[in-house]
Amino acid sequence: MSEESNPTVIIDTSRGAIELEIYVDKSPITAANFLELVESDHYDGLIFHRVIEGFMIQGGGFDRNMNQRMAAKTIKNESFNQVSNVTGTIAMARTPDPDSASAQFFINVADNDFLNANGDQAGYAVFGKVTGGMEVVRDIEQSETANEAGHGDVPVEKTVIHSVEIQ
Fold first, then answer.
1. Would you call 148 exposed, middle or buried from its count of C-beta atoms within 10 A (0-12, 13-18, 19+)?
2. 30, 59, 67, 119 — which has fewest CB within 10 A?
3. Contact in structure between 124 and 92 (CB atoms under 8 Å)
4. In 3D, which of 115, 80, 129, 76 has the Cα closest to residue 98?
5. What's the pLDDT tens digit per position in 39-58?
6. Domain range spanning residue 34?
7. The pTM is what?
């Protein structure tokens, strides 16, 4: 993978494929962490476990039985990189601690400016964008949701991530 070009990643789901451009140029720490997780098959068999229509779809942390799969490390927040949480971008989920992102990610299905860094307030680090399969993202967004295993907004019909591959 050359420094001049951002890699393409394919998320193969039970509803179809989502193609992403990963911003190694704009979000190097976050991109490297995501690509390491892809190469270690971290995401295989996990689901999109949190879906909020008009906001985002989130995955990368739970299997279909809502058992959490933890990543080995957390990373420094790169939300000050001036890349906005707009429709079709992928960003890292985190706790209230800005430097707590590890493996969970979300795809914005709307322009979510309130998730961007603001002044010295950290936001949610965008590290890529959907370049194909936005219709799959929209299909997942339309999922009926319920509460499950102490979590809200969990799709009733699970969308499984079969594999994530670097092209």
1. middle
2. 119
3. yes
4. 76
5. 999 999 999 999 999 999 99
6. 8-166
7. 0.96
